C-alpha cells in the first residue's frame, strides 16, 4: 500500500507544501514572499503574517496537483526548526491541526537534515543515483555552512562548520555592498558568469580543522571597495562583473578547500552538496571538476530541491514514518540547532 506524506515547510520566508508517494515526488508548491525585497532582508513579523495567508491555499494546491484526496494522506511532516520562530509556529500549528483532524500521524523534521535527505527524493524516470552510506555533505545556505558525515538517514555528525557568518550570508552581504538588490546571491552568480574570477584578490581565512569563517572575507571586500571608490566613484559600476566573479571565486574556493580536506581525513569518496547555495553555478562546477579529477563522486540536487522546499520535509518525514518515529502534539518549534556534533 503506498504511503502518502504531506510535507509543510515554513522555516523562513517561503511557504511550501509537497506530497510524496513513498519516495516519489507528486507535487511541490512554493509561495514566495516578495514583501521583503524593499527591506534588504527577511522581516520576521512580515514573514509569519504571509505564512498565515499562504499556508491553506499552498497545501490545497499541493494535494490537488498530487491527484489525491486529503483522506489518502498517511501522515503530515512539518519543519520543527531551525528557523524563524514566528514562521515555524504557523507551519507547526497548522500541521498539528491538520493531522489531528484527519486522525493521521504527525512527523517533526529538522530543516538541515531535510536539506541533506533531499538527495533521496525520486522523480519519475529519474536516472540520478542516490549517495550510498557513508557520505559527506556540504550544506550551504544563508544561515548555515556545514560539512556533515552521514552514516544513516538520521545518523549525522557535523565535522566542520562556520564559526561566524554563513556562505550564503557572505554572498548577500557582498551584493549589498555593491548596491545589488536582495537577495543578492543569485545576482552575483548571474553577473559573475560574465566576469574574470582572477581580476581581484581578497583575504582568505585560515581557520584550523574543518571549520569555516567568512567575516574576514566580507571585511576585506568592504575595505577594498572603500579604497577603490575614493579613487573612482564609478569603480563598482565599471567592474561589477569582475567583482562578482572574484568574490564568488573566493567563497567557493574556501568551501571546496575544507571539503577536500574532509575527504582526505575521512577517506569518504561520496560527496553531496545541499542547501540554497548549492544552486550556485560556480559551486556546482567546482563539484563536477573534482569528480572529473577523480577526487570524489559528486551528488548534486535538482534545482527545485536546493532552496527551502516541502519535498525535502516530506522525504525526511517518509523515513521517520517507516521507523514509526511520530511526534506528539505537545511538540514546539525551535529557532536554533542543538549541539555542535549533531545536525
Write the layout of secondary structure elements.
Layout: E1 4-9, E2 15-21, E3 24-31, H1 44-66, E4 75-81, H2 85-102, E5 106-110, H3 111-117, E6 135-140, E7 145-152, E8 155-161, H4 167-177, H5 185-192, H6 215-231, H7 235-238, H8 240-266, E9 270-274, H9 281-292, E10 297-299, H10 310-322
Parallel strand pairs: 1-4, 4-5, 6-9, 9-10
Antiparallel strand pairs: 1-2, 2-3, 6-7, 7-8
Helix pairs in contact: 1-2, 3-10, 4-6, 4-8, 5-8, 8-9
Structure description:
The protein is of the alpha/beta class and 343 residues long. It contains ten helices and ten strands. It has a five-stranded mixed beta sheet with strand order 3-2-1-4-5, sandwiched between helices. It has a five-stranded mixed beta sheet with strand order 8-7-6-9-10, sandwiched between helices.
Placed side by side, the strands forming the largest sheet appear as 3-2-1-4-5
The backbone outline, from C-alpha atoms, is globular
Radius of gyration: 20 Å
The amount of helix comes to 40-55%
Q: How many domains is the backbone divided into?
A: 2
Low-pLDDT sequence parts: none
CATH topology of the largest domain: Nucleotidyltransferase, domain 5
Q: Give the CA-CA distance, first to last residue.
A: 32 Å
* Content of β-strand: 15-25%
Largest sheet: 5 strands, mixed
Global structural class: alpha/beta
Task: Give the C-level CATH assignment of the largest domain.
Answer: Alpha Beta
Amino acid at each position: 500500500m503506498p504511503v502518502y506524506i504531506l510535507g509543510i515547510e515554513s522555516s523562513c520566508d517561503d511557504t511550501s507544501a509537497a506530497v510524496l508517494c513513498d519516495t516519489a515526488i507528486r507535487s511541490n508548491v512554493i509561495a514566495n514572499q516578495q514583501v521583503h525585497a524593499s527591506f534588504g532582508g527577511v522581516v520576521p513579523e512580515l514573514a509569519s503574517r504571509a505564512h498565515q495567508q499562504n499556508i491553506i491555499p499552498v497545501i490545497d494546491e499541493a494535494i490537488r496537483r498530487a491527484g489525491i484526496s486529503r483522506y489518502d494522506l498517511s501522515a503530515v511532516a512539518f519543519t520543527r526548526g531551525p528557523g524563524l520562530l514566528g514562521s515555524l509556529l504557523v507551519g507547526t500549528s497548522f500541521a498539528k491541526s491538520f493531522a489531528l483532524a484527519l486522525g493521521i500521524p504527525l512527523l517533526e523534521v529538522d530543516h538541515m537534515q531535510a536539506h541533506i535527505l533531499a538527495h533521496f527524493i525520486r522523480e519519475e524516470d529519474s536516472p540520478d543515483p542516490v549517495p550510498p552510506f557513508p557520505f559527506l555533505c556540504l550544506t550551504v545556505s544563508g544561515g548555515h555552512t556545514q560539512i556533515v558525515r552521514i552514516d544513516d538517514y538520521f545518523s549525522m555528525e557535523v565535522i566542520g562548520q562556520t564559526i561566524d557568518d554563513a556562505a550564503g550570508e557572505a554572498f548577500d552581504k557582498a551584493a549589498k555592498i555593491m548596491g545589488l538588490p536582495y537577495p543578492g546571491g543569485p545576482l552575483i552568480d548571474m553577473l559573475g558568469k560574465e566576469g574574470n574570477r582572477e581580476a581581484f584578490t581578497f583575504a582568505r581565512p585560515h581557520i584550523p580543522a574543518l571549520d569555516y569563517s567568512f567575516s574576514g572575507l566580507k571585511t576585506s571586500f568592504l575595505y577594498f571597495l572603500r579604497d577603490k571608490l575614493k579613487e573612482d566613484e564609478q569603480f563598482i559600476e565599471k567592474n561589477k562583473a569582475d567583482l562578482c566573479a572574484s568574490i564568488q571565486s573566493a567563497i567557493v574556493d574556501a568551501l571546496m578547500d575544507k571539503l577536500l580536506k574532509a575527504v582526505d581525513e575521512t577517506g569518504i569518496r561520496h560527496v553531496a552538496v545541499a542547501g540554497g547555495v548549492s544552486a550556485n553555478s560556480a559551486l556546482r562546477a567546482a563539484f563536477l571538476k573534482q569528480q572529473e579529477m577523480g577526487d570524489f563522486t559528486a551528488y548534486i540536487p535538482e534545482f527545485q530541491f536546493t532552496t527551502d522546499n516541502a519535498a525535502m520535509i516530506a522525504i525526511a518525514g517518509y523515513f521517520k514514518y517507516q521507523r514509526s518515529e511520530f511526534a506528539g502534539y505537545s511538540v514546539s518549534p525551535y529557532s536554533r540547532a542543538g549541539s555542535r556534533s549533531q545536525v
